[in-house]
Each structure stands twice: as C-alpha cells, then as structure tokens.
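Deliverable D4.2, example record:
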Amino acid sequence: MKYKRGLCILLAGILLTGCSSNTMYNEFEDGQQIIDFISPDSSEIQYADSFAKDLCVVPVNYQNKKDPFMTAKASLIFDVTDHKILYADNVYERLYPASVTKIVTSLIALEECDLNEMVTISHNAANITEWGAKKCGFQEGDQIKLKDLLYSFLIYSGNDAGIAIAEHISGSVEAFAEKMNQKAKELGAVDSHFVNPHGLHDDNHYTTIYDIYLFFEECIKNKTFLDIINTKGFTAHYKGADGKSKTAFFPSTNRYLVGREQAPENVTVIGGKTGTTSKAGSCLTLYSKNSNGHDYISIIFHASTGNELFAQMTRLLEYESK
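Output generated by the structure prediction step:
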C-alpha cells in the first residue's frame, strides 16, 4: 500500500507526543485535515513511526515559549542530527516564500538533470518585465552549462536563470510548476502550491516554513547543492548567440558568507537561500553546524527588513551554542 508522506508526518507527530487516542489524520483537502480512526497497531502507525526517525516533526498544536526578539511571522531551528526542535513558531501558516522558492527548483534540477547539459536562454527568460526583479542579465540565445546556471541561480538569485532552468527541464514555466507541485506531494509538503520557479509574487504561490524544511532537508543530501550554497561568489563562463565567450561574476546574497554578518561563536554557516519581495518580506533558509558536529536547519519568513532578518537569524543560531 502506498502512503502519503504528509500523512506520515502527522501520524508521527501524534506518536511522538505520546497521544493514546486512536484518532489520526489520514487525508488532506486544500490543507484541511479529515479525521479517521485506525488501529494503534496498524501498519500505518508502524510506517509513520519509522518515517519520523528521519525528520524533525512539529505536532500541529506544538507551542514553545515565544522569544520576544523573534518578530518575523514564522521561524524555526531544528537540530537535524538528533531530530530535535530547538525553536518553532507558526511553522504551518501559508506564506509567500519569495526566492526561497529556488530551493525547490534546484532540488528538481539536481535530481533530474545532467549538470553538463547546455541550456539556451529563451526570449521569455531574458525579458522579465516585473519591476525590481533581480536578473543575472543573460540575453536571448546565450548558451550556458546547467551547472553554471544553477550556481548563478542560487548564489545571486537571478530570476532569469530560474525561467531558463524551468523551460530546459519541462518546456515551459507552467509545466515546471506542475512538477514542483508533484514534488511537494512526494515530500509531504501538503501546504504548498507553486506557480513559478523563482518566487516572484503570485497570490497562488505559497508554502510554509515546515514545507521548506522538507525540501531543504532533501537538498543538503546533495554535495553539489552544498558546494553551491557555500560559495561566496561565482564567475559564470558561457557563450552568446554569436558564439563569443562571455563571463559574469555573481556575489552571494548570504551576508554570513560575504562577511557582512557574524554567526555566534562555535557556529559555522554552510549556506542557504535568501528571498525578498514586498509581500513576502525578507526570508532566509540556512544550513549550519556547531562545534559539536551537529547539523542545523533554520528558517525565517516575513521579517520586516533585511537587517531584521539577519539579526533574528543570528538569534536563532544562538540556540545551537546553548
């Protein structure tokens, strides 16, 4: 029997909180739980218990003492080595993710593609018209290796690179969005819906910080992904439509990597993904380690400014050194 991963997360959350009730969540319709009753020794529970060992599970009714310094709409930090919640606030609210969306796009590219494939930049990718949209500056007809495109996409957060990746994999942004939503179902990211590969605003493009944790947990298993997010700056080499060589340098948007912010003592920031739009506020997903060798994922959505975002992220990272 095939089980939905989202079901397993919720079952595991009940199990880990010691609930003795036979009431279990077994289906979702547009984010609404439907209650059913199953036997406590059933295969569903056994499967969920095993599945939970690989994840940090936040029960739906989980509450920790609110940190008054954490004013962003949603935040979390997990010890992913021991699968422990260090802090979690509002992890299941649907919010706009801005360029944190690029984690989802990158996961699909890393899973499905040969990174040596050549990508040709389309007219659509080269001509984003949305005001304020960050672009790498690729021009129609440019040809670039997918690996270099992915570096540019994650490090610099160029939205034109995102469209090029989506079209290369699926033929169109719309078809790629369907693939993103299918991947969300596979990972149990039940409160997400994506309509584009980059995170430029759309009212129907949303996720939760817990769902992003599920995507990011998969991404950090990939060495190439880790190499990319740990890079301070990247020089892309590619060819124009006329066959002439081009280069472009893309600095990281991660302030910890470029020295604009300092992590707490005994904490090493590996990397992550920033995101900012007017409606999403300032967002950040981060992977870090402490001096004891433990790995951590921390996420903040909807901080009021970039300075507030990184100040609050540093606060979360202090939980590692306690």
